[in-house]
Amino acid sequence: MAPTGQRRSSYSRRAQYNLFTGYIIAGIGALIGAVLLTLSLFQPNLFGWARSGASDTIAPATEATATVRTESKSWWDSITGYYRAGSKNAALKREMEIARIRLAEADAIRQENRRLKTFLGLDDTAIKPVAVARLIGSSASSTRRFAYVGAGRDKGVEVGMPIRSPRGIVGRVLEVGGDSARVLLLTDSESVLPVRRAKDEVVAFAEGRGDSLLRIRLINLGINPLKPGDLFVTSGAGGYYRPGIAVAIVTQVTDDGGLARVVSDPAATDFVAVEPIFEREAVEALKTPVEQELSD
Question: Which of 194, 199, 140, 141 is nearest to 169 (CA)?
Answer without folding.
Answer: 194
